[in-house]
Structures are given as structure tokens and as C-alpha cells.
Design goal:
The chain has five domains: 102 residues, PH-domain like (Roll), CATH 2.30.29.30; 85 residues, PH-domain like, CATH 2.30.29.220; 136 residues, Roll (PH-domain like); 119 residues, Pleckstrin-homology domain (PH domain)/Phosphotyrosine-binding domain (PTB) (PH-domain like); 54 residues, no CATH class. It has an eight-stranded mixed β-sheet, covered by helices on one side. The chain has an eight-stranded mixed β-sheet with strand order 20-19-18-17-23-22-21-26. It has a four-stranded antiparallel β-sheet with strand order 27-28-29-30, with no helix packed on it. It is elongated. Strand 17 and strand 18 form a beta hairpin. 23% of the residues lie in helices and 39% in strands. It is α+β, with helices and mostly antiparallel strands. InterPro entries: PH-like_dom_sf (IPR011993), RTT106/SPT16-like_middle_dom (IPR013719), RTT106/SSRP1_HistChap/FACT (IPR050454), SSRP1-like_PH1 (IPR048993), SSRP1/POB3 (IPR000969), SSRP1/POB3_N (IPR035417), SSRP1_DD (IPR024954), SSRP1_sf (IPR038167). This is FACT complex subunit POB3. It comes from Starmerella bacillaris.
């Protein structure tokens, strides 16, 4: 007899569904539809055989009450959304159909951030006051690293954006501070002078890290190692890592960080020569990206000497090779190290390798050097997009580029700037500025942009166009100035002429007119000057001056 419950969320899924339990096992499928316009992915139907069930617990959850089921292969299944009244019927159903006892689990609500950790069968449990505060399933742990001397960082594995079925924010990292006590090894008595090696003291944080890695099988994969390459130089993230190839994933092992990356995370592969003509680079674009603390690495950049030859035979049995790898990778290789590694990535991931395009710079190279802010970079114009190799590489499809602006071409510098305008993302359109591009590359780049139908805006051409228009406007203005204008042939009479007219008209009327003219002059030059002379010489002189001006 089967039992069904509706409105249940499976592993924090975006939509709810129904759960059915029978003697054969447990199953869940989504029944709620996504809202219109949502690009989320709905969780696929899930079936769990009765033989895989290990234990079940009941506790409060995000959608009311939660049932957690632990499986024999180490997984933890969460079913959230039960009502409180469902406890009795669910307990009977699990007991009768699946032979499981539903245990009641009570979480700590004190809010403390200190407690004790326990490494149980399927998960890491953090206890506060002898009650669980939270758990981290081992299957959800991507990697663990010791940070400093007393911190252990646990990174949570996240699916790619296209495969996410959960809603809202997600935890990506949890850090545990472990007191920096040193765990002393067991004393070996009576072995002084013997050949017995005494273990060195171990840091408490390092011991917790090692135990968690061993318990969670972090870094281990099913199947044997196909090939290994030691001390490969990575420019992004910076360091040397050992690369180990397995059937479903590859492992990066460094001094501090250890990653296990599924081949399905590889989105693109680029194999290109460096501008120094001494090395080749192999670039992997990942989704989801790797993380080191708060830093995300969507690109891995490996560097190989161009003339480094390698001969290797894969560690694969003949029957396994014929079953899984024949037609994908070779049985043995004798080529450059970059060619061997890129061939393995291509065959195991199923992604094609993108190589250099027909673009050639003035130095006959497939890229041009530039700067992004203060960092050196190389711009590779490829067949379908731009690849910018720098400390933080970027790949831009031509379909995402709305325009390219070339600036500082009219100056006396030997370089110019390129600005790539991208399609609107969110509320604003973004731009990528590439500085200090050699002016010798300008005509070659413009020709390549035209071949890809990319809109180009040349500031120098715009300036020349504006200057020519200005010169034409100035020339037209000069022609207008040279035309005749009769309105400005005669000058208006001056004030002095008007004054002389008035004085001349009153000169024949007697001394009274002369006196008035003299008083007016006194008002202009000052009364003291007239009193000191005692005669009319000054007034007569003024009249004479006015008469001369009038004539």
C-alpha cells in the first residue's frame, strides 16, 4: 500500500511536488509549474530503492516540517513541506513500507557560533550544547583547505547556472576556526636510539582538515588514474598544480588547494601561442567557476614551453580503452606537452579546441599586446569572439559587441585605445577598455573588424570631419564679411560736433551768449580756473577750438 504527500520540496527545489512511498522505495516528482518567463530548471523525478535507505529524521524546516533520509551510498535526501499532523501517518508509512524508524531531531536555537564538530557517516555535524546546529553532507563538499594556522575553509559544490534547481541565495563556503593547539603524537617509550620514527606534532586545524578529507573522500573519484602531469604552471590561478585525469573528472593538486573538476564543467577550450613566441597557453572556460575564498576563477590558464616534447602511454587496460576511450583519446602520445594535455581535455570532455584565427598582427602573431588598467594583456581576435588573456581572462562573442571605439589616434603617441561596447546587461551597458594598443595594428584591426561586421567608431576620423566642417563654416563667414553694407557708410555725429553747433548758432547774439558758453565750460573744467584768470581768454580759446573742430 502506497502513501502520497503533496506540496513537498525536494532538496530545496524551486517548485513543489508529490512524494510516494511503497514497499519498493520512495519517489518524488514535481507537480508545480514555474512562473512565466522563468529560466529555472525543474528537478527531475527522483527514485530511491528501499534497499538504499539507511535512516530518517523529522525536524523543523523552511517550508514547515522536514524529513531527512540518509542513504547507504552517503547521500542525504531532504523532503520539506510536511504538516505537523503528518508525523504520525508518515511514521507508520516509513515503518510498514520501508522498515525505517522516523526519529525526532531537535536543533539548537541558541545562536552560538562556537561548538563541537562530529564527522558522522554521511555528513559533518556542528553541535551547540549537545544539539545539532547545522549539517553539511559530504556529497556537497567540493574541497577543504587550511587557511593560515587555525582556519579550515569548506567549499560547497554548486551546479552550473543552467543546472540550478534551487531558489534564492546559497551557501558557498563555511570556515571553521580551530584553536591553534598542537596535537602531540603518542609517546614512544623505550625507543630511544632505535630506528622507530617518531611522528611530528600536528596542528589541530590541519588534523581536522585531514580527517574531513578522509571521511568525505574529497578528491577521490571512482576508477583509476588515466594520466598525470606534474608541476604544470598555471598563470590563472597562479601556482603549480599536478593534473590527474580520471574517467569523469580531472583533479588539480597544489600546495594549498585541491580541486576535483568534472569534465561537464568545461565550457570551452582554447589552445593559442603566447606573444613571447616561447610558450603556448591552454585556456579552459569553466561553468561553474573554481573558487579560492571570495575569488572566482571562470578560466584556467596553463602555460607550456613551446618546444617541450613528451612521450606518454595512458594507464588504461585494453578492454576499458575499447569500451570508453577508443575514438576519443589515443593510447599513447609523442608530441609537445601542450598538444598532449589539450588532446586529453578535448577527448574526455567532448569539447572542441578553439585555435588561432586568420588574424595576423604586424609581427605575424595571432594577438596584439595591450593593457587593461595597469595589467598586461593579449587580445586574440578569434573566429567567433575576442579572447583577452590576462590575470582575469575574458571571452566576448562578436554577437555581444555593439560597437568598437578607437580613441587617441590623432595624438602624437605611438599607441591608441580600444573600447568594446557590449550589449545591455541588466540596467546598464558595459564596456571593456583596452589601452596602449600599437598604432601599427590599427589598419589591420579595422580591416578584421569590418570582416566580422563589427561597427567601428574612429575618433580621429570624427575629429577630421568636425575640423573640415568648422573650416567650411569659417570660410562661409569670411565671404559674408566682405559683402557691402550701406547701413554702415556714414558715422553718427559726435557729441563735440553737436556742442559746437549749439555754440555757433548763438555767437552772433552778443556777450550774453559768450557768458553762457563760458559758464558751461566752467562747469566742465571747474569754477576755480575761471575765477583766477579774470578775463575771457579761456572762454575765447575754447570757442576757437570748437570752431576748428567744426571746420
Amino acid at each position: 500500500m502506497s502513501t502520497q504527500y503533496d506540496g513537498i520540496y525536494f532538496n530545496q527545489s524551486r517548485v513543489s511536488g508529490e512524494v510516494r512511498m511503497s514497499t519498493d522505495g520512495l519517489g518524488w516528482r514535481a507537480t508545480q509549474k514555474l512562473t512565466a518567463g522563468s529560466n529555472a530548471r525543474v528537478s527531475q523525478p527522483f527514485l530511491l530503492p528501499a534497499s538504499d535507505l539507511l535512516s530518517a529524521s523529522w525536524s523543523r524546516g523552511a517550508h514547515n516540517y522536514l524529513v531527512q533520509i540518509h542513504t547507504r551510498n552517503g547521500d542525504v535526501v531532504s523532503l520539506d513541506g510536511f504538516e505537523q499532523d503528518d508525523f504520525q501517518s508518515l511514521q507508520r508509512s516509513l515503518s510498514s513500507n520501508l522498515d525505517l524508524q522516523l526519529e525526532h531531531k531537535e536543533y539548537s536555537l541558541r545562536g552560538w557560533n562556537w561548538g563541537k564538530t562530529e564527522l558522522e557517516n554521511n555528513e559533518l555535524v556542528f553541535n551547540v550544547a549537545s544539539k545539532p546546529d547545522f549539517e553539511i553532507p559530504y556529497a556537497a563538499i567540493a574541497s577543504t583547505n587550511v587557511v593560515g594556522k587555525a582556519e579550515v575553509a569548506v567549499e560547497i559544490a554548486l551546479p552550473s547556472q543552467a543546472e540550478r534547481t534551487t531558489n534564492g541565495d546559497e551557501v558557498v563556503e563555511v570556515r571553521f576556526f580551530v584553536p591553534s593547539a598542537v596535537v602531540e603524537p603518542a609517546n614512544v617509550e623505550g625507543n630511544e636510539g632505535s630506528d622507530v620514527e617518531v611522528e611530528e606534532p600536528v596542528n589541530a586545524a590541519q588534523q581536522f582538515h585531514d580527517q574531513l578529507q578522509e571521511k568525505a573522500n574529497i578528491g577521490s573519484v571512482s576508477g583509476s588514474e588515466i594520466a598525470q602531469f606534474s608541476e604544470v604552471l598555471f598563470t590563472t590561478p597562479r601556482g603549480r598544480y599536478d593534473i590527474m585525469f580520471f574517467q569523469e573528472a580531472f583533479r588539480l593538486h597544489g600546495k594549498t588547494y585541491d580541486y576535483m573538476v568534472p569534465y561537464t564543467s568545461i565550457k570551452r577550450i582554447f589552445a593559442l601561442p603566447r606573444l613571447d613566441e616561447l610558450h603556448d597557453v591552454l585556456v579552459l572556460q569553466l561553468e561553474p567557476p573554481l573558487r579560492q575564498g571570495q575569488t572566482r576563477y571562470p578560466f584556467l590558464v596553463m602555460q607550456f614551453p613551446k618546444e617541450d616534447q613528451m612521450e606518454i602511454e595512458l594507464n588504461v587496460e585494453d578492454d576499458l580503452y575499447k569500451e570508453f576511450y577508443e575514438g576519443k583519446i589515443e593510447r599513447s602520445y609523442n608530441a609537445t606537452s601542450e598538444s598532449v594535455v589539450s588532446s586529453l581535455f578535448k577527448g574526455l570532455s567532448g569539447r572542441e579546441i578553439t585555435s588561432a584565427s586568420s588574424f595576423k598582427s604586424t609581427r605575424n602573431l595571432p594577438a596584439v599586446p595591450c593593457l587593461i588598467k595597469a595589467a598586461e594583456a593579449a587580445l586574440y581576435p578569434l573566429d567567433k569572439g575576442f579572447l583577452i588573456v590576462t590575470k582575469t581572462p575574458q571571452y566576448i562573442k562578436y554577437s555581444e559587441v555593439t560597437g568598437i571605439r578607437m580613441s587617441r589616434l590623432a595624438t602624437g603617441n605611438r599607441s591608441f585605445d580600444l573600447t568594446l561596447s557590449l550589449r545591455q546587461s541588466g540596467s546598464q551597458a558595459s564596456e571593456i577598455a583596452l589601452n596602449s594598443v600599437s598604432k601599427e595594428e590599427q589598419p589591420i584591426l579595422e580591416h578584421f573588424f569590418e570582416s566580422k561586421n563589427l561597427k567601428t567608431n574612429n575618433d580621429a576620423a570624427e575629429q577630421r570631419k568636425g575640423r573640415n566642417q568648422f573650416e567650411e563654416d569659417v570660410a562661409m563667414g569670411d565671404d559674408d564679411d566682405e559683402s557691402d553694407d550701406e547701413d554702415f557708410d556714414e558715422e553718427p555725429p559726435s557729441d563735440s560736433e553737436e556742442d559746437s553747433d549749439e555754440s555757433g548758432s548763438g555767437s552772433g547774439s552778443g556777450s550774453g551768449s559768450d557768458a553762457e558758453s563760458e559758464e558751461e565750460s566752467d562747469g566742465e573744467y571747474g569754477s576755480d580756473n575761471h575765477v583766477d584768470t579774470g578775463d575771457s581768454k579761456i572762454a575765447t580759446a575754447k570757442k576757437d577750438r570748437k570752431r576748428v573742430k567744426k571746420e
